[in-house]
Amino acid sequence: MSRSGYVTGLHAVEQLLARDDAGVRRICVEYRSANPRVKALVAQARQKGIEVQEANRARLKQMSGEVRHQGIVAEVRRSTQLDEAGLRTLVETRLASGERPLLLLVLDGIQDPHNLGACLRTADAAGVGLVILPKDRSAGLTPAARRAAAGAAETLPIVIVTNLARVMKRLKERGLWLAGTTDQADQSLYDMDLNGPLVLVVGSEGKGMRRLTEELCDYRMRIPMSGTVDSLNVSVATAVCLFEIVRQRSCQ
Known about the structure:
By secondary structure, this protein is α/β, with parallel strands linked by helices. The protein contains ten helices and twelve strands. The strands form two sheets. An eight-stranded parallel beta sheet has the order 5-8-7-6-11-9-12-10, sandwiched between helices. A four-stranded mixed beta sheet has the order 1-4-2-3.
């Protein structure tokens, strides 16, 4: 499935152009921009054979949906967004390949686009094979989410599903274990064996996982907290969990 989207801001566009697989269609920059970072990105884009267009501020805001576009917007081809059939094929192929244990991430209803983008960025860094988002009750891949993801939203396989419970059941049937994160869990993250084919399930800000989502998890785990606060920001908690999985797997 191929779709277009927009990535805004200097850092996010820099991250995109640094990758050969980002699928950048064109770069739009503010008319006669004197910003040296914009000029450097224009030169880099042209060197890669990417079309560069000039536009006024109103046009850039219309494309990006943001006032703070910093004078540059990249139009990208979303070739890594999958449907449920693509999800099934990817999972079956990876399981049959005998490569490192498959790791998927379910983000169940994250509302803040900056949190969603930060989770995607961390997922990319941790080697997550695919991210699953529900169609409803989720921030979606907005320009703000893409900007926070710093290029990960354009290269990380993502599937947006209408029925998250059904997808989770099918993943269980294919031999993946579902590990949900909740402050109410009895087991600590650091006491879990997270080495096999795994789906990490993270709930929304504040409310956490929905009831049915939590019931479908094979086990639930919490991050031990020693201070006065009782929870972490969802993107920080996701990063802690993902890199504990990475740590365990690197010790094998």
